[in-house]
Amino acid sequence: MTSSFLDNAFFRNIYCNLASSDSARCAGGGPFGDGLFPPGWEWFAFLVTAFLTVFVVINGALLGVNAYIWGERRLIGRIQGRPGPNRWGPFGLLTPVADLIKILTKEDIVPAAADRLLFFLAPFLIVVPVLLVFAVVPFGSSSWVADLNIGLLYVLAVLSVESFAPVMAGWGSQNRYAMFGALRAVALLVSYEIPMVLSLLGVLMIAGSLSLVDVVHAQSVPFILVQPLGFLVFFIGTVAEIQRAPFDLAEAESELVGGYHTDYSGIRWGLFQAGEFLATIAGAAIIVTVFLGGWRGPDFLPSHAWFFIKLTGVLVVMTWIRGTLPRLRIDQVTSFAWKGLLPLAALNVVLSALLSLIWPAPTNGELWIMVAINMTVAAAALIVLGQFGPKAGERPTPAPVSTLREATPGGGN
Amino acid sequence: MSMRTEPVTVNIGPHHPSTHGVFRLRVTFDGEVIVDVEPVFGYLHRGTEKLAEERTYVQFVTLTDRMDYVASMTNNQGFVLAVEKLAGITPSPRGVWLRMIAAELQRIASHLVGMGFFLQDLGAFATPLMYAMRERERILDLFEMLCGARITNSYMRPGGVFMDAPEDFWPAVNRFLDEMPGYVDEYESLISGNEIVLSRTKGVARVELDALINASISGPMLRAAGLAWDLRKKHPYEFYDRVEFDVPLAQESDNWARYIVRIQEMRESVKIVRQCVQQIEPGPIRPKEVPFLVRPPAGEVYSSIEGPKGELGYYIVSDGSIAPYRCKVRAPSYINLTLLKDMLVGWRVADMIVTFGSIDINMGEVDR
Amino acid sequence: MYGLGILKGFGVTALNAFRSPFTVEYPDRRVGLPGLARSAGINPLAFVLKRPKDALKAVLGLAKIPARSQQHSRFRGQDFTWYVERCTGCASCAKLCPLGIIKIVTDPSGRQTQEGEVYDIETFDIDLARCMACGICVEVCPYDALHMGSGFERARYGFPNLLITVDELKKAPKRPSTWFRPQLEERGYHPHKSGQADWRLVGRHERPTAGQLKRNWVDDRAK
Ligand code: SF4
Ligand code: SF4
């Protein structure tokens, strides 16, 4: 694994400066000549380097959350015809900081009936897995924490750990609103995981690798063009997976007060919010990496800049969606996943499999032919699917009230 | 395999983001499906009807503002019409026109609020609500010009209104009338075609027309079921027989129909205000001979108007003194709530909130 | 087709994002460089040259200018404007306030030569905590002594501080609202633009001259 670590320019620079005696890995040495540490201390240099890298990435992600919270609030403000937060600091940039201070000074309330272990663990479980995702995201042509050869699988696995958090929070806080939210979250995540994973299969077939770095290298044509259906399904799936509008029914403010985090307050509530925004950034980063060509772009800007421009673009679209669309109902959400996205994803898989049988290692020209074929099929599929317009909701037959009444003599919240 | 399930009872409210005030619903759920609803209200009861018995007629106008606080002009109007009928006062024409203008503007404002919160309940991150508020602000600005207040207007008096409109009111109201249809188009293109809204509202919480009539429900809810019952047409009060307008109807009687009827009514109200502005003539705004202390003869009267939410009626008994002996308000919000259970059973949590929003109630009026 | 309506909605929200906000910022407004230059009344370029420090602040998004209220002259403010010179202590306002929150104590035996001619107002308390700004007290005042105010910044900590006492009424700046005072409107009075209004200004009638008074009260009676 070490060698792949050292493909990373950031990592190598630090490491070689600290331990340039490691001539096997750092040919030419660093600016400090023999390095800061004496020979034999390579392991320590390695540790320090690893720590620094992770430190930078995690704090970068958290700073990104702050910037994104500010940006989203400003943008939604403008969409709604108001200026958005503009009081604290230049253009209101310090508003998230002020919010954080406020949240930190709030009383931390724990319901008497809560299952304390689950209640305390849930907020951490929502933040940590998302931070882990950033480990494999290539931010630039040679900047990443780790280039795992199972990168995509890792992302999906780690993100699905996150879906335990709502359940733990909902169950742990012993509140019926929270329970509703938790159950909705489970239904949502179970339904959307499958089309999401399926939609990535097409990408894998063309790129021929699970590593996110290789996926970016394979994108001489951005995969949004080669895999339009895959992109559509993955984008919607990501929005659902991170539970943002219009799929925010697990927290559904107007229905369930706050859903699974109804009973949380203070910094624990803040962690839920941070987790949601972190997940949004992580999801957007994955979308950028897998479908929008990652760091690739014309040469006049450095690769990091391209990555962040694309990331901002995806985040703006997500915010725009949030500012426009109302929420779906739980049965509509799940049926949309099973009846709408799953067929599309399956079609995409079949089509990509056929195409990659014809062109096992596509060249640039062959990729453009794929674009044409896939686009046509995607348009046709969407038009066919679009004929099934919104149907009037059907009233499900409830159990007779009388029998149910007996089951709950008292009731109440 | 059969699962052993158990219904859950949840208290929605009295403090809940979408109960539109302090309202409590004890709902029994089977999973997400509603099996029983028990509305509990009275948390906002302030005894307005009792207070009326020790206030003079003009003093009570100020309290009618506080009943349906998003439609205070129509509340004023209903009350002063009842007093005029009781005391046999003939209002001045200019005052009547001004009252109609104010009432129709208020109807637009009230429907804007109804529509905005209905979509807020659907979960649209406050965007349509903010757009609705934007136009409502302009209406409130007009009210500020008329009477110096934005919400609790107390603008009307038996015999007319208390003060003529200022000079700058007329250009402002014309500008507003020119722009309002465009804004309604904007809501329509934001919402009316949106498939998510359609699938969330069409066919949801349908009630039969017979049930509505039996429960004496009125207003947009009734018109959404296909009955053209509008007191402005059926028993024209003020000068509603001198203006031309349509009564928007829908047949489906579901949440969508209630929404679309309100949207259409806003367009009709714009038309009415425009005709009022054209027909208004200079003159006194209330007859000089009407004293501040109205002293109607002993008797009783029931007078009702078409409020934004339904038939708003005042039943006043007078014993010949300066204060009503009894004043009963037929509050449309309260009566429109009576079918809540029939509308909700069988639907899901999310539908419950939306249906509740589509009835467009105001707790200040329900509890009075 | 399914989905087109949603796209239309996106169009509407995107259009609105480029409109200027309709909300009012209060008590001050954040402005950029063009806004600050406009409020100073010079063009941005000259502004940068003249006041580089402020210009830098504006570019950094830190500049603010006070936001003025745009209220109409009829706005019924929370504070009242009361003219001790005009008030006779008739207490019509106290009697007809729907909530009975005006407390008036008058003293007929003060400095006056003839008893009962003019009353001294010893107490004129308005309990703002319960006042609903309905304005009936103003409507019924026969001598145009009491007017609605034009302010809206009378939030205080605690109920006792919300009581407006007679001393405060006497000292308060006289910016009456034109609510129910058509005479003020006819004179084009605006509480925020025209400055304070003297007690002679706010009446329904011109103040009679000494000659008129003599004619009305002395000569006519002598007849
Ligand atoms: S404004 Fe109304 S409530 Fe306030 S003191 Fe005057 S009459 Fe009483
Ligand atoms: S303010 Fe007016 S109504 Fe009140 S006591 Fe003085 S003169 Fe009479």
Give a structural overview:
The complex is a heterotrimer of chains A (413), B (368) and C (223). In chain A, 65% of the residues lie in helices and 0% in strands. Chain A has 17 helices and no strands. In chain A, helix 7 (164-172) runs antiparallel to helix 8 (176-207) and helix 8 crosses helix 9. Chain B is an alpha+beta fold. Chain B has a single domain (47-339), classed as Orthogonal Bundle (Cytochrome-c3 Hydrogenase, chain B), CATH 1.10.645.10. Chain B is globular and about 80 Å long. Chain C has 223 residues and is of the alpha+beta class. Chain C is 32% helix and 14% strand. Chain C is built from nine helices and seven strands; from the N terminus they run αβαααββαββαββααα. In chain C, helix 3 crosses helix 4. At the A-B interface, helix 8, helix 12, helix 14, helix 15 and helix 17 of A face strand 1, strand 2, strand 3, helix 4 and helix 5 of B. One iron/sulfur cluster binds at residues 97-99, 101-102, 126, 131-137 of chain C.
Strand content of chain C: 5-15%
- Estimate the mean pLDDT confidence of chain A: 79
The end-to-end span of chain C amounts to: 93 Å
| Overall helicity of chain A | 55-70%
The helix content of chain C, as a percent range, equals 25-40%
Query: How many DSSP helices of chain C?
Result: 9
Note poorly predicted spans of chain A.
Answer: 392-413
Give the class of chain A from helix and strand content and strand pairing: mainly alpha
Main sheet record of chain C: 3 strands, antiparallel
Q: What is the number of helices of chain A?
A: 17
CA radius of gyration of chain C: 26 Å
Spatial shape of chain C: elongated
Alpha-beta content class of chain C? alpha+beta
Low-confidence stretches of chain C: none
Rg over CA atoms of chain A: 24 Å
Briefly characterize the structure:
The complex is a heterotrimer of chains A (413), B (368) and C (223). Chain B has 368 residues and is an alpha+beta fold.
